[in-house]
Amino acid sequence: MKKSILVIFLAVLHLFAFLRPAFTEGIGLYGSFGGGSLLFERQFDGISIFGIPKTTAIGCGIAVDTNLSGSDIFNYRFSLGYDSQFSSAKPVRRLNRAVMYHVFGAGLFRTGTIRFWMGPGLGVGYFWGRNVYVNRETYLIINNLVYFNQKLLTFSHLDVNLGISLGININVSANVTLPLEGGIRIHFYTNFGKMNALPTFTQIFPVISPEGYASFGVMYKINESADRDVASSTVNKKTAY
């Protein structure tokens, strides 16, 4: 039920971002990479154990921007993507995250070729993965040595993140822009429910994750070509008269 509510919520936000295409100047693809740390809590026999492993992430997605090269100060950038994360913690295997991110930027330096902007960001997404834990209720004794069985525990979380972003739009032609973006984000993960694998074991994973990121891509200017076609049509009509 909670997962269904999350999917509906993400779909509504996604639809809202595209309800007003007249304000969209460009759309394109991007690739991203980043890294940070991941604070998680593990409970065993009523005792909380915290870990802070390092993480790296590689991802890709689509992005929409309302102002790639215009003279207006403000721009809104919407991105929807997926990234695969890897943690230095031994109990944690591959991590997955699907996130939509909203950045509200202000142009600090604007020319016909380069636009440098900065602004706050807000994101929401879905985080899932797998965790290996030791099942202490199942074990083997061989040559007076105890071997505990390991089991796999899956988990999923709601991801809400806040951050600050810097970006440079390099306009290589009238229709093509190369966007470069970087920043810092703090992810807050909310568990859909505690994962009680055993009566003596509860895993809450993760809690919070600060990270730095960078992205690069290519975007096609939609309204730029449309405005040029309108201007060309107007000139042709005047010439005909």
Name of the top-level CATH class? Mainly Beta
Q: Structural class, from helix and strand content? A: mainly beta
Which strand-content bin applies to the residues? over 45%
- Helical run tally: 2
Overall number of strands: 11
Radius of gyration: 24 Å
Q: Label the CATH architecture.
A: Beta Barrel
- Spell out the helices and strands N to C: HEEEEEEEEEEEH
Order of the strands making up the biggest sheet:
1-4-5-6-7-8-9-11
Protein architecture, described:
The protein is mostly beta strands and 241 residues long. It has a single domain (2-232), classed as Porin. The chain has two helices and eleven strands. An eight-stranded antiparallel β-barrel has the order 1-4-5-6-7-8-9-11. The protein is elongated and about 75 Å long. The model is unreliable at 196-201 and 225-241 (pLDDT under 50).
Secondary structure elements and pairings:
Elements: H1 2-17, E1 26-37, E2 39-44, E3 47-51, E4 54-65, E5 74-87, E6 92-110, E7 114-142, E8 145-171, E9 176-191, E10 195-198, E11 201-221, H2 222-240
Antiparallel strand pairs: 1-4, 1-11, 2-3, 2-11, 4-5, 5-6, 6-7, 7-8, 8-9, 9-11, 10-11
